[in-house]
Design brief:
Elements: E1 4-5, E2 10-11, E3 16-18, E4 23-25, E5 30-31, E6 36-38, E7 43-45, E8 50-51, E9 56-57, E10 60-62, E11 71-73, E12 76-78, E13 83-84, E14 89-90, E15 95-96, E16 101-102, E17 107-108, E18 116-119, E19 124-128
Parallel strand pairs: 1-4, 2-5, 3-6, 4-7, 5-8, 6-9, 7-12, 8-13, 9-14, 12-15, 13-16, 14-17, 16-18
Antiparallel strand pairs: 10-11, 18-19
Length: 145
């Protein structure tokens, strides 16, 4: 069993998926060059989501205070119309709300509300986005580039 991938999904070369059988990608979504998708605890990516180049999405990490450096984590959810800009990092257990934008180079340590724009290390709300979104990222793309 492999990943569940919707219609008209663009997958750019050089991306990596860990445990693809726990990955779900909606329709009309773009996964950029060099993206790392860690689905070991589950990763759900909605429709019309743009994951730009070299984005890292982690569902597992280590408890640095644990004597044995225990592995911990949780499912990551990226809702419809979200845009995760280049080199952003999303940590385990995070939900990126519908239409939210994560600025380039940000590290997301907390859930991102719908239609908000976050940036920084750690990412904080810096703006809001229109809630009237109806674009289709799947129009005119090649499925695998």
């Amino acid at each position: 069993m492999g990943a569940r991938i919707g219609k008209k999904v663009g997958l750019y070369r050089g991306f990596e998926v860990r445990d693809p059988w726990k990955l779900s990608i909606g329709d009309n979504t773009l996964i950029g060059h060099g993206a790392l998708l860690d689905a070991r605890k589950g990763l759900v990516i909605g429709s019309n989501v743009n994951l730009s180049n070299e984005v890292m999405v982690w569902s597992l990490h280590h408890d640095y205070n644990d004597e044995f450096f225990k592995i911990i984590g949780d499912k990551v959810i990226i809702e419809d119309y979200a845009w995760i800009c280049s080199r952003a990092i999303i940590l385990p257990g995070i939900t990126i709300g519908k239409g939210a934008v994560v600025a380039a180079g940000s590290v997301v340590t907390k859930n991102v509300p719908p239609y908000s724009v976050v940036g920084g290390v750690p990412a904080k709300i810096i703006s809001n986005r229109s809630n009237k979104l109806s674009y289709n990222l799947g129009e005119g793309i090649c499925p695998i580039i």
